[in-house]
Amino acid sequence: MATPHYCYSFLLVSHLFLLSAQSLDPTDFKALLSIKNTLTDVSPTTPFFSTWNLTAPDPCSSFSGVTCSFNRVTILSLGANSLSLAGSLPPSISVLTELTQLILSPGIVTGSIPQELAQLNKLRVISLSNNRFTGAIPSIFSSLKTLHTFDLSNNQLAGSVPPSLTELPQLRVLILASNSLTGDFPQTVSSPLLHLDLKNNKLTGTLPPSMPSSLRYLSVSQNQMWGPLSNGLDSLSELEFLDLSMNHFSGPIPAQLFYLPTLSSLFLQRNNLSGQLPQSPGDNGPLIWSPSYGEGSTVDLSHNSLSGKISTVFDGVESLFLNNNRFIGTVPEVYVKSMCRGSTRTLYLQHNYLTGIPFEEGTVLPDTASLCLSYNCMVPPASLMTCPASAGEQLSRPVAQCTLFNKRLN
Description:
Radius of gyration: 29 Å
Order of helices and strands: HHEHEEEEEEEEEEEEEEEEEEEEHEEEH
Largest sheet: 14 strands, mixed
Distance between the termini: 115 Å
């Protein structure tokens, strides 16, 4: 007969085992079972769900991609370390009411995004990028007041961007790039965004009249947007990356963009921009900042209708594309010096109306330098040039074109 001490020890071990077996909330366990039934592993060599043993005593510690706190699922990272998943997301995921992060690795998950996710009012991160979701972005997601990161990029979503989405009070990262979204760009952007990426959609309309000054990354390239650039850009003093390329924006480029203290990447190519560039900081009134161009910086203003003399404000830019515009005059000497010392590695000025560049005899450019001056109103230094195929084989513009252009200027 066992002594009382041994009986107590046996009961304690049994109790601990029962607690371990029930370490995950039963409702959450049913939700995980539903997820496993609607998603499948595409790659048999690296199956994600191989660790989801439904008889495991502690799913919180054994299920891949599952993180728990106090027996509730708080983070769900589906497809982690797996090639990809297929299937769809079940609405029953909404019972994981303590969930703060929902992350789906790139795969071929299809169907619509469950509206029931809006019930998860503790969600901070939703990342469902690089899959095949269809349908519209549920407008009911405006109820996710704690959402910090929302990434639905590289799917097949359609419809408009819900206006309430850019009004979420804690949203810092919004990435909806590479879908088939239509309609106007939201005209109210009050969320404290750091990163806004809507490139490669079918958005129309103008930039909003104001955007949060906290923005550091803004891209709406490859859309169908139009209007002046003065809208919404005046207050973006923290901006580091701006890409408005391949739209229908028109009018002059705001001078402030050239003197933002943190901006190192500026892409405005293939629009309908016109007007002249500021020749120096003082040309547009007192500007207290200086641009942060340097290693890794890129400015692309190509394929517009910009005119006048080339500005010196881009001194130090590593990759500078001003080709296919209407610039005139001589290339400023600062760019020659910048190329010779290796600061500027790419300088594309082809297809303008330039008349000279101040190279001294015997100038040699670094091997890393790429200069193109073809099809201007000058005889370019062919031995120093490395042009892309798109520049064409003709070194200079026909004299008649240059003469006619100069007459129109006068």
